[in-house]
Amino acid sequence: MDFISILSIFVMACFVGYYVVWSVTPALHTPLMAVTNAISSVIIVGALIAAAAGAQADGGQAAKWLGLVGVVLASVNIFGGFAVTERMLAMYKKKERK
Amino acid sequence: MRTLLGGAAALFLATPALAASGAGEPVNPWVAVAYLISGVLFILALRGLSSPESSRAGNRYGMIGMLIAVVTTLITHDIAGLPEIGVAIVIGGVIGFVIARRIPMTDMPQLVAAFHSLVGMAAVLVGIAAYLNPGAFDILDANSEILTVSRVELGLGVAIGAITFSGSVIAFLKLNGNMSGAPIMLPGRHVINIGVLLGIIGLTAYFTTLPTTETAVIFWTIVVLAFVIGFLLIIPIGGADMPVVVSMLNSYSGWAAAAMGFTLGNTAMIITGALVGSSGAILSYIMCKAMNRSFISVIAGGFGSDSGGASDGAEKIDRPWKRGSAEDAAYMMKQAENVIIVPGYGMAVAQAQHALREMGDMLKEEGANVKYAIHPVAGRMPGHMNVLLAEANVPYDEVFELEDINSEFAQADVAFIIGANDVVNPAAKTDKGSPIYGMPVFDVDKAKTIFFVKRSMGGVGYAGVDNEVFYMDQTMMLLSDAKKMCEDIVKAL
After folding, report:
1. How far is A97 from chain B (nearest CA, A)?
2. Which end of chain B has the least Cβ crowding within 10 Å, N or C?
3. Given this model, what pLDDT does residue B301 score?
4. B18: contact with A, CB 8 A cutoff
5. Distance from chain centroid for Cα A76
């Protein structure tokens, strides 16, 4: 993809983010931070590419190991972030109507 | 959607040429579509948080989005070491899962700071890996030089990632109490910080001008400087400003992911980065507004110390104030029709949320109308109090935000303040000289009776200002540990 297409997606996504985040109820701001944390670990895609590439090129071996460490860190975040969000959201209950 | 993905997967598998190309993104529209779907699912994940009912579904969308992104990446690349990658995911996954299950809800701010640091570090590692093995990331031009635009993205991505990492580590240490929350002020720190930031930008520009093989020193200098600046930026910021810092670092972790997304031309990463970046920025804005402070003044640091305890209250103690007992509070609240509870960080420290909810339940049985009022900056991160009350089984429709409940204090028989201080200080409305002047606060002074649960008369809140509410005629100070006081009131009821 050329730079301008990517930039367009980015700018549009910033606007989407702006409106979506303002619609989040303040009571859920902590889960919001936890879940944004989990999804920002989509950076694992880059780590996987580095880890998957193997050692064909110069520096490939080092890149592979860095990638693997990146995969570990991002996985902690993905599993931890989604699990802790799930745990928090399960606690939000409505008043029991009697 | 499942059939669509199945179709995508079949297409990948039917094209061995794609799988064999080690040179990063193959030009296959299905790959782009898959990443786009995962980006859209992430938008839906945040959208779900607009109400507690839809939030759980939203979280599931997020998980599916992540799964699609990971699986797509794995099946479109020539995987030299699948077992290693599997092991890496399992190690990380188990650690993350165990932490998520065990962490007490009061420690959520620290946890989020720690998780931010991991995203930052992962971004740095990916950036370095891309620099070392640009072929795999498909960022080389015909002469085997790293593309100019990719160099800018790499430089910025690595720098933002490193700042996120070291900043989050400091925020974690401060929130977790391993490091004093008091601001650490270096002489000339503004000059140093601005100098280092300009240095990073300048080096990134220089990085784009040299042949790839001669850039190693510059690239590593950028990485090191960025780690240093992240550290320098956060140490002067006091404990009370941590909600803003945690939100800000949330934002940075998003921009780091976006920068890497630019390098890889990956829509899922770019959309996510933009979402997370805006989310953190908006939360920082909300926090600053709720404290009536500018973002710049928070970042510049030096505000407030973490002492909180009995430090400098000695000269103020001579003013008359009334001390109440648990029995007094129980007696008064039994008669009350409308009770508004204002929790603050002190409630979290004392782990008083369960005892408080028990008290609230008993008052409801006595026929009182009990509501909880939460200030945007109560606690150490946005929404912290809401999570703690939810943990204690307080229904979320009894919990109200500042602007929704403030007019109700005039009708309230009792305002029960527990572990909060600055957010109920009328000086913010009246005293122009006060450091918290202009901050929106609860009008607790309009309630008929005020109970103020506090450990001692010494502490004066994070802003270090005295609170007129202590000395008002209708105020009774309940000096005790917040949890113990709630339990005593429950007994007396």
Report:
1. 11
2. N
3. 67
4. no
5. 11
Average pLDDT of chain B? 84
pLDDT value at B11 more than 50 = no
Q: Quickly count: other Cβ atoms within 10 Å of residue B189's Cβ.
A: 17
Taking the alpha carbons at both ends of chain A, their separation in whole angstroms is 58
Which of A39, A73, A88 is opposite residue B66, by nearest beta carbon?
A39
- Nearest residue on chain A to B73, judged by CA atoms? A45
Joined tokens for residue B111? 């946890």
pTM here is: 0.85
In the structure encoding, which two tokens stand for residue B426, read together?
């009328």
- Annotated catalytic residue B488: no
Q: What are phi and psi of B448, to 5 degrees?
A: -65, -45
| Interface subset of B 420-459, CB within 8 angstroms of A | none
Probe site for chain B from A39, A64, A89 (most B CB atoms < 10 A): A39
Under 8 Å between Cβ of B322 and B475: yes
Identify the burial level of B197 via C-beta atoms within 10 angstroms of its C-beta, where 0-12 means exposed, 13-18 middle and 19 or more buried.
middle
Spacing of C-alpha B457 from chain mean position: 31
Q: Is B111 on the interface with A (CB under 8 A)?
A: yes
Mean pLDDT of B446-471: 77
Q: What is the pLDDT of residues A22-71, one digit of tens each?
A: 999 989 999 999 999 999 999 999 999 888 886 666 677 888 889 999 99
